[in-house]
Amino acid sequence: MRHILDTIADMFPDARCELNHRNPFELTIAVLLSAQCTDETVNKVTAHLFEKYKKPEDYLAVPVEELEQDIRRIGLFRSKAANIQKLCRILIDKYGGEVPREHAQLTELPGVGRKTANVVVSNAFGVPAIAVDTHVERVSKRLGIAKPDDSVLEVEKRLMKLVPREEWTLTHHRLIFFGRYHCKAQNPQCPVCPLLDICKEGQRRMKSAVDRKNKGKTVNLTSKG
Fold this sequence. Notes:
Elements: H1 2-11, H2 24-33, H3 39-52, H4 56-60, H5 64-70, H6 77-95, H7 103-106, H8 114-125, H9 134-142, H10 152-162, H11 168-181, H12 200-224
Helix pairs in contact: 1-11, 2-8, 5-6, 9-11
């Protein structure tokens, strides 16, 4: 694990949250919108959204249909618009318009699951946490940190056990960068990966590539013969 952590730290020393935000409230909205959507698309939408809506009251001052149109480029925009308004109502009624700092309170908000809560507490409030998104889950399983059939929660628990607590948040960001820009879901960069020596899936991919290449050569030779 130490080898993995040090390697991805060297590869992505500046890894960070790529969702643009200026405060905990904007971060919460951005992460809620990011479900099944790329950070790049979310940032394009929130560039306008966060200028129009500054605080929870602003989101409740418009019909839900107007908010839907403002986030229409986001997947599941109708349910997300409804959740944003419900979330804002709870923030006003229960928390004085502020995003709560406790993980348990965050997960009670509409549209906020465990991953979103982990992102908010770690990035907005400095509480160590590892949020397991699709990149973190994929990389953890490929590198053998977690088992192939582990649930998202089991992946999180394995990482929390293996990674020093003070490195949880940084590791979360670096695993995301590693998965987003290097160990991609499609066409991972196995030939130049510094962790190939411990990645069984990468080794299998490389072997398959060699086998296909050799098979192709055999077919060509046979056809020429």
